[in-house]
Amino acid sequence: MSDILEVEAVSKSFGGVRAVDGVNFRIAAPGVYGLIGPNGAGKTTLFDIICGRQFADSGSIRVAGRRIDRLRVHQRTRLGLARTFQECRVLQEETCLDNVLFAAQDKRLGREMLRTFARHTAPPRAVMAEAARLLDLVNLWRSRAEPAGNLSYGQRRLLEIVCSLIAQPRLLLLDEPASGINPTLLNMLRDFLQRMFAERQIVLVIVEHNMEFIMSLASHIVVMHQGRVLEQGPPAAIAASRRVIEAYLG
Amino acid sequence: MRPRAGAVPLATGILFAAAVYLSPVLFAGSPYVLFLLTQTLCFAIIAIGLNLLLGYTGLVSLGHMGFAGIGAYVTALLMKYGMASFVPALAAGTLAAGIVGILAGMPCLRLRSHFFIIVTLAVGMMLFLFFNNLDWLTGGAAGLPGVPRPRPFDLGFTLVDPRRPVGFYLLAATLFLVVFVFQYALVRSDFGRSLAAIRQDETLAASRGVDVFAHKLTVFALSAAIAGLGGALQVLFLRAAAPQSFGFAEDINLVLIVIVGGAGSLFGPCLGALLFVALPEALRIADVFRMVLFGAALLALALFAPRGLWGLAVAAIGKLRFGKSAAAHVGHS
Amino acid sequence: MASANVVVLALVAAFGSVFMTSPAGAMEKLLDIGVVTARSGPLAAAGKFQLNGFQLAVDKLNAGGGVKIGSDAYQVALKVYDTHCNAAEGASAMQRLLSVDHVPVVLGELCSPTAAAEAAVASDYSVPLILTVPTAPDLTKQGNTFLFRVNADTDQLSKALAAYVGEHHWSPLSFIAWNNDAGRGGVNGMKAMLPKDIAIGYVGYFDVGAVDFSSDVTNIRKSASRAVMLLMDEEPGALAIRQIRDAGLDIQLVGTLAMGSARFLKRLDAKYLDGMVQYSAFPPSAPVPRIEEFAKAYRARFGEEAHGFAAQSYDALLLAVKAIQAAGTASDGAAIRKALSGASYDGVIGHIQFDGNNQAHPPVYVTQWCANGTRKIDFPADLKSSCGTG
Amino acid sequence: MTALFEQIVNGTMMGAIYVLVALGLVLVFGVMEVLNFAHGVLFMTGGYLCDVFFARLTGNYPLAVALTMIALAIAGMALERGVFRRLRVNVPMQIVASLGLILMVENGAVLLFGPSALQLTVPTVRSLVRLGDLSFTVQHFVVIAAAAAAIVALYAFLHRTRLGTALRATSQNAEAARVIGIDANRIYRLAFAIAGALAGLGGALIGPLFLIFPQMGDLPLLKGLTAIVLGGMGSIPGAIVGGFAIGIIEAVSTLFITTDYRDLMVFALLIAILLVRPWGLFGVRVRGDI
Q1: Is D225 in Cβ contact with B303 (below 8 Å)?
Q2: Chain A partners of B203 at a C-beta cutoff of 8 Å?
Q3: What is the pLDDT of residues C304-328, one digit of tens each?
Q4: D270 to chain B: which residues are within 8 Å by CB?
Q5: Distance (Å, rounded) from C-alpha B145 to C-alpha C384?
Q6: Whether the Cβ atoms of residue C297 and residue C304 lie closer than 8 Å to each other
Q7: Which domain holds residue A36?
Q8: Which of the four CATH numbers 3.30.565.10, 3.30.470.30, 3.40.250.10, 3.40.50.2300 does domain C28-152+291-353 have?
Q9: What gap in Å lies between CA B143 and CA B240, rounded to an integer?
Q10: Which pick of B157, B176, C83, C94 has the fewest CB atoms within 10 Å?
Q11: Domain C155-280+365-383, CATH 1.10.150.120 — does that match?
């Protein structure tokens, strides 16, 4: 049985600066993983490389044993890799519900074209029910007919995460989910993520600056510094690590 | 249950189809109006083609009359030299435009927004050069006279003769309605949703699993093919092909038809086509001063009616009938 | 979306009401003649000459008490529509002239592809369309019996000039031509007519609106051509000649009818033009009484030298009216068509008689510029004259 | 060889004009992601204004050119304020607005100056430079020199002044520029002013050499657009290299292919290059653009 996510010797330079410098780590079991590090540690670049927004100069990335580092974004998604964006992206013109249903839709071109002139184009009942349940969990069901662009920033965040989860990914990467969210919504977010993890037993990788949030959520933390993995382990060990503290202070 | 963006009630659909089909009866006494309406339908088909791309996918192509020209010239040449009858010739023209669309789309679609606009403009001008310069094939700049109209169709109960004004109108109306329904089905389908996602946020669409390039290429080809169909119909209607009908000025005209009419709405491009066929007729003796005013009107429209005239008209009437809240709602349809 | 219903209905009604109305009112005793031309865009200048010709003919008819058809007397009026040289707009203008204005005959047009679309409509309504400017030879070879052309097509125009070039052995011969129907047709016509021993040096096409001829100049120099033919209008023509001479290229210039005019001289010094030859369907200062008379009338009315397009259009209108009178009807297009095809008419541009394709064969001239800024006729030989008469 | 030399001179001259147009387009695009398709009418207005200032008012060509540039800088600022600032996010309506402007200004020029082209004769067009068999007008070299001076001045401005640096900063990262307190609207206005002045310079230089007419800006606009795509949208060195490259390539290519396919040559080259480098010759690969 191969690991769910395997990052091996990944490097990426920008004009001579090594943003990511031979990073290795493996995620073998389901769990909530935190990826942290001071500004400029290379977290975002690594995140982008895993999601396919940038290509690594060298190294390999495997999901469930399959190499994905040369695949395009949508191909990675179809292999069960989902993500959210730091800047929070939803389809602003569509309603909340349509956002979720779109995320659940089978987007293979041939299938889409075949369905275009089919008699029944409504989404399957199970998808509809799951969409309703998830939206309700984050308190968005009452805003389902509202265009996503009208929601508050925090609500859009929650919607984005619901959209990512409805496609049943095996690996969900969240890019700073806690940033810009008020404390009430933050608690809701934490509860929601914990509940989803309990239900689905998938891998959640969270890049985060909010230490309190990540430490309370993650079971395992990876710390990056100057493009390398500095330390990894359970939250308590990380919090006690001298090297980590030095990196943040230095 | 699922709220459908831009759903058209059956009543509106039937009313629209009836209005299209009954125009020959309504304007029986005025072949001139029927002639203009036929021209409108030809343009509306091309505009619907562009609307799929520009309105629903958010890709502004400035070279679409080139694809219309491919359809037009392929069909016209096949018919003029008796190499194919109407239906295969029209199919060949449509298909050829679609294929050229794929070939042109492959390099163009690697580029985004403004880059894409400029490169499609270049493609349109390159296609025009072929229409204008290949004297031995297309008749060159002097045009291709003597393109025949299709032969009569026997429908069992009646004979439709496209060589007569009413007959051609009915042919054009049928093709127009087919294309309109195609547009309707496409934009409401899952494929249409993926296109809408691409228009709103390409990066997000890709991360939701949409193969952005393949989707764009498909809609580009469909859009070019529909434009080709409209171009073919137009040339058969006029019975002569002229390169200038597919040149840069017409490209601009087409983009205006779609945007001014209301890009991304079902009826907007049809309204635009009606307006842009009617307007030059109303201003038949357009002096320079009126062109200045027309320019000012376009500028005002760009600044104050971001969703085009269709959006403006529907919002205004909605406001009259239902008060303010309805008008606000219509904005998202 | 219910409001969409209202919009759809309102549009149908509005569209219908705008275009159903034909101009009503007292129209008795007025003979409307349809005219299609370009009044805006790059061909507006050519359209002006064409319209001037029609206007002059109408003035002449009305000054003489109008036209008698059968027992009724009519005043003649023009119904002019701008086609912008656009095939679709040309066709719809024709449609309007024939089904709303009900004119007995339509005249004019500048662009060949537009004329092709208009000719089809003319045939639908069995009303003659008489072209006075477009030159594509194919136009009158489509078997459309309602399409007539009074002016010479490019093959006819090129014939005399091609022979002239052969006689002087200007080989190799180069071309700079508009990349439109007039330019491309002109080059093809000349190529077909030139004697075998004349080599083609270089052929350059440019888009309407282009102003830089440096590439053409370089290529002509490279091809060691002895002459260059300019197939374009006055404006680019003057520019091209200026650039050819400024680049130090000493070469025989050959031009079209637009370049044998006083207007053309005004754009350039006489030294630039000295020795240039051009074909012409209408040399405005020729010592031919009918031309002299027309040139005088034209100058009196419009204050400038007469133009070939005007002369061709003037003749076409008078010929059309004559055919209407001969047919004795201002409503039966087929009868007028018949009268036209049998007509034999001596106009300003010469004798007009239509062949089996309804194409006329007016005389064509070759004129040459003199050093003092006047012109002389060089062809046909019987009109050969001295400077100041071309 | 003579032909090649002659075409390189001619190509450099036209290329210089394309560069002036392309620079204006790229400056504006760089800071506000707006493509002004009506840029050609600024160029055309430059030609007409130069005629007014030279033939009807001052009789001094350099002064007329300078006045033209000032007038068009003001016109550019007005365009920015009145039209394009409001259309930053709506690309289709940028096109509609541009077309409206084109119709208004081109037809307005016909109303004011009549339908036939103006011929503006300045001393440098009258005098010729002989080089062996060849001969060029002095204006050819004036065009090249003036464009070169404008490019140098622009570089000095962008790299040596605070305002220029602010403009570059906005172009590279609008968000960061806003954070450090650069007033974006002021930068937009500045970009449009420079773009207007450069377009006016182009029109005032080329007008006397050829003709001044309503559509005189169309072709330079088209080539300027091609140049900025070729060079990389948003890249100033790209616009310069792209402009000169297009001028020289289209001039030299006519030695091998007929002129009616000249544009085909340029556009095919453009598409070929974009297939290899979709971000243009000098453009920067944007994050996520793969």
Answers
A1: no
A2: 53, 73, 85, 89
A3: 999 999 999 999 999 999 999 999 9
A4: 119, 122
A5: 39
A6: no
A7: 5-249
A8: 3.40.50.2300
A9: 7
A10: B157
A11: no
